[in-house]
Amino acid sequence: MVVIGILAIIMSIAIPSVYQQMQKDGMRAAVSDVLEACGHARARAVLDGTVCELTIRVPPNGGINVTTTGRTSSIRDFSDGDTVGGSTSGGGVFSAKFSNHILKVDAEVFEAADRQLENEVVCKFYPNGTCDAMRVELTSDQNEIRIITTDVVTGIADVEVVK
Fold this sequence. Notes:
A 4-stranded antiparallel sheet has the order 5-2-1-7, covered by helices on one side. The longest helix is centred in the first third of the chain and has 23 residues, at 26-48. β9 and β10 form a beta hairpin. It has one domain (26-161): minor pseudopilin epsh fold. It is an alpha+beta fold. The chain contains 2 helices and 10 strands; from the N terminus they run ααββββββββββ.
């Protein structure tokens, strides 16, 4: 009986930590989702020759969507950040929802002030592999801060750990 009691105590201590290790924490999942969305948007834009839009909504309804706009002849004009292109009909490519552990999402697209709303931001990825300059700052309930930025020339996202 003593052995069974000791095993029960050890298991009651071990099970929560094993469960926590198996579940992605909120910050890792959020960063992974943003990076994956950027990758999907860039790949879809290049492979399909269309403009893809990455939409980030802030909590409490926070989430990420990637959709194609259907513009096949868009050309990025680096002088003013605008695109020149065809029609706009789209389809969903990727979507994710931020965890409840993510308390704050500050997102900004620098070249697209006309496409920013109070609770969402839209970043465009272009067929030539470029994208709008985007900065996303994620803050978790554990006071972790991660900043994700996109490189306008390569369209690739990078993560900076603040704390």
